[in-house]
Every structure is written in structure tokens, then in C-alpha cells.
Amino acid sequence: MADAESVPVEGWDFSWLNGRATEERPSWRYSRLLAERMPHVSSALDIQTGGGEVLAGVPWLPSVTVATESWPPNIVRASQRLRPRGVPVIADDGGVRLPFGDDAFDLVISRHPVVTWWDEIARVLRPGGTYLSQQVGPRSVVELTEHFLGPRPASSARDPEAARAAAEAAGLEVVDLRLERLRTVFNDVGAVVYFLRKVVWMVPGFTVEKYRTELKALHDRIQAEGPFVAYATRFLIEAHKPQ
Predict the structure, then answer these.
(1) Architecture of the structural domain at 2-240
(2) By C-alpha distance, which of 199, 236, 192, 137 is closest to 20?
(3) CB-based contacts of 111, cutoff 8 Å, min separation 6
(4) What are the residue boundaries of the Methyltransferase type domain, all occurrences included (predicted)?
């Protein structure tokens, strides 16, 4: 737990968990979809890029590619990764307006956005443009959250059908919507500490000191029964702006 509590958690690189935790990947392979789409557009925007890991891994980027991020440590990480690719990282304040003009981008992408600003996405997309996003689904890894916080509501704000309705209300046409449930395994309590420090909305305000009792109970459970298993949910949504 001491190691997991001290390691930096900026960005979305989860390599520290190698050997400690695993999570199944969605069948649609989001990075592959981006690699297939990018060569066919002249401009792209990555919203809430995190540390820039996903965008930096795309083999080819259009000459006009821009990323946004609001968390200061991630802005630094993303700039370091994306500057060599010629991609500026625009610091935003997390507000609801994107700092771009109307009809600016052929493709807008976002992996695991905290909030999706559908009206703004529709505004900055060119007619005929596409929004492609992989998002956290309903009650993702709820088994872990409930260990620390107790039973959670059955409903969720991250319902894919709610995303469809919001996209259509903004004037977009949803052409693909898929949801998958993915097995997630934590082999030791240190993996849980690292995960909750990084994915801060799972247990808001999490610290080792605050939740030491629950961590000890989870450690004892893993020792007695084996790895802790939870299920992440992810959905893919693709929406087009009419010509």
C-alpha cells in the first residue's frame, strides 16, 4: 500500500498495474478505430485527452489535430507527449464551451470523458463530421465502489440510451451504440489503492488513511479467497452531424 500511495498518478498510463491487476478490453478496439479514421479526415479534435496517451499512439494524424485538457498535471504530460507530433494541447477550464469556432473539425474524439458536451460537439463538427467516443458505462466496477461506500443506486447517469437521447437532442444522428461488460481483476490491495487514487470518481475523497479499515478487510479477503473480481462497463458511441 505504501508503494501504491506514493507512485505518481498523472495521465492515463496504467502500466504500474502490470502483474497486479487486469481488465478486459472492449471488442471494438477504440485505438484501432482511431487509426482507421484519422487518415480520412483533414482535422481532428481530442476532448479531455488526459495525458495524451491514446492520441499519441495513433500512427497517422491529420495536419490539423488539437487536444484539450483541464487537469494541470495532465496538461503537462499531454503537451510533452503530443508536441513532437505537432499537436497543441489547449488548457480549458472544464466549462461547457469548447474554445473553437463553429464547423471546425471533421472528427471529434474522446476516450472516457467526464462529461460530454453534446451541444458543443455538434457546434464544432463540420456538416458530415463524426463524433467517436468510448465512455465509461453504467455501474462500472460497482463491486469495488460498494466495498468502500455500501450499496449504490441501481440507476446511473452513464446510461448509453441517455447518451443517445442527448446526442439526438443536439441534432446529431447516432449510427453506432454498443455496450460491453468487462472482467476486472485486482490481485492485491496495492492495485486497489493505485486504481482509486487515479480513477478519483470511484470513491470520492479516497485516501489510505480514511479507508484503512476497508482496505484491511479487502486485503484479508484477497488473501483468503484470491483476487477481487469486479466488472467494468464501457460503451462506444458514434454520431454524425447531418450534411
Answers:
(1) 3-Layer(aba) Sandwich (3.40)
(2) 192
(3) 30, 48, 50, 54, 133, 134
(4) 45-131
